[in-house]
Amino acid sequence: MNPVALGQSDLRVSPICLGTMTFGEQVDEAEAWRIMDRGVERGVDFFDTAEMYAVPAREATCGATESIIGRWLKARPGMREQITLASKVAGPSRGMPWIREGSGLSADDIVRSCDASLERLQTEVIDLYQIHWPERHVPAFGTMYYDPQKESSLTPIHEQLQALAGLVRQGKIRHIGLSNETPYGVHEFVRLAEQHGLPRVAAIQNPYCLINRSYENGLDETCHRLDVSLLAYSPLAFGLLTGKFDQFAPTEEGAPKQARIARYESVQKQRWGRPDALAAARRYNTLAREHGLTPTQLALAFCYTKWQVASTIIGVTSVAQLDEDLDAWGVELSAELLAEIDRIRWEMRDPAV
């Protein structure tokens, strides 16, 4: 895997990123260490985490993932220099008062969160520090439409950028990124950065997979023209695109009870557990088998080979899953198969938006 550049930054990372939100909830520390060791062994030099992880978010596990990574790094002298480390400051609390009180994301919130993440990660600098979701009211996490009547922004984007600039000057972070953002948000962050000499966004981390290609509805043009790289998350749609649950009947809520997503009510109701998302996933999984591929190979190769994607974030619960995901690198999709994928999307659109 050849390294890819993130935006206009000096970051060069592997085109596959190890997502770590399972560490501390679905994955115990010993297995997490084995997964990270195996990832590095196979050429993955880009790790992504967040202050709110593990997922599903709970007060008892908030920050646990960063702490696991920190202990792993401390036990491996010299490893920190080999890894591009990304983390995220949570946006407004969204019902998680253990992260912060109130509905905003102030400059002080950003600084305090960064300091706490640095301590847990046992490092002096975070290479890519991202805002996990916008402070503004935006359609995300299962909602489709912007509603100006729900606007509750307390902290201007300029103020957030100034806080991030202070962290860059102090050497606590190297570059900044966004997550779950909109075309307006990306453009405004870049515009203000260029106007005021503040840090420029290097990357955006948004969902992108066969059953959620909403990134292609205008945000891809925005990021291409502004030179902001996409870090695609949930390429396997929380496991629905692995095909492992195709034989099980869906529950009334959508996802089969055997699927790990069914254990997490908030996640299931947001996007991935919807009945139409499961139905679409099964269509793509069947298409993969008809073309001699596993569903995992089709879903990951789709992300790995799209021009829109700089690096694909894969989250796993075992070394075996990690190997399966990495083995999909290099799988080529024919023009005929890509056309069939587009036909299904035209019919079923983006049910996991």
Automatic annotation (TrEMBL):
Which Gene3D superfamilies has this protein been placed in? NADP-dependent oxidoreductase domain (3.20.20.100)
Keyword set, alphabetical order: Oxidoreductase
Query: What is the superkingdom listed in this entry's lineage?
Result: Bacteria
Domain NADP-dependent oxidoreductase residue range list: 15-344
Q: Where are the transmembrane segments?
A: none
**Which CDD domains does the record cross-reference, listed alphabetically?**
AKR_Tas-like
Spell out the molecular function terms from Gene Ontology: oxidoreductase activity
What PANTHER family is this protein classified in?
Answer: NAD(P)-LINKED OXIDOREDUCTASE SUPERFAMILY PROTEIN (PTHR43364:SF4), NADH-SPECIFIC METHYLGLYOXAL REDUCTASE-RELATED (PTHR43364)
This chain's protein is named Putative aldo-keto reductase
- In its UniProt entry, the species of origin is given as Comamonas testosteroni
